[in-house]
Amino acid sequence: MRKLFIVVIILFFAFLCNLASYTQGYEIKIRINSLSDPIAILGHYISNSMYPDDTAWLDHNGNGVFKNNKKLPGGMYVIYLPSTKFFQILIDEDQQFSLESDTVDFINSLHTRGTVNNEVFYDFQRYMKNLSEKATVLQENIKTSENEQEREELKNKLKKLGDERISYINKTIQEYPELFVSTFLKATLDVQVPDPPILSDGKKDSVWQYYYFRNHYFDNFDYTDARLLRTPLIEGKIMDFVTRIIPQIPDSIIPYLDILLDKSKADSNVFRYMLITI
Hints:
The protein has helices at 2-23, 106-109, 116-144, 148-175, 180-187, 208-215, 226-229, 234-245, 250-264, 268-277, and strands at residues 26-33, 39-46, 49-57, 63-68, 75-80, 86-91, 96-102, 111-113. By secondary structure, the protein is α+β, with helices and mostly antiparallel strands.
């Protein structure tokens, strides 16, 4: 009887260990309406390329699940359908969640459960879709207008839309400072450059803003965060800095590349990417 009791205890703890291992992994349930594809592929970004991680077989109602007992690295992921349709999701610590969408309109129809990151992310995408439609109308009107005053008013309205986007992102960052979606959205913002100081001769310092922009270029983009490595943002950001912002002479390029490489050592994957890229 005592031996049986010991065996039961061992099996019980083995069960708990397996359960703990499972809960540390991911389980992403999906339901995609209006779907003819039998499978969906979950993949992640590295720079501008997408690499597959998992496949889900879908039933006749479009239900499927991506599941593994090992967690996914944080970043932007893609749920891709063989009919070449896809939508993006963010993955961080919350890896037990469900998504429902429709192939007719992924952005407006997407509903989430158990993932605040993606709830906030798709609120932003819906906001941006609306903003983009307004911007397109203004841009077309600017092109066709022959009245200079009207053109200036339209340009001001267009600028106001850009300011509204920045305000929306800053508000999101303030409300959800710990979420990856805030890190991601912040990384899309350019640094705001202050007005230049006035020199002793009463003129504005003509190069001050350039140096400010160069020195603060990565204020909003923490390239040591490996989650941003798995987004489409990083390569454009790095290469723009290396090929456009830094003067293209060795004495200027080399010290800045040394800084990029040294800071990227905070994460081995980021360092490897940075070393290969630059």
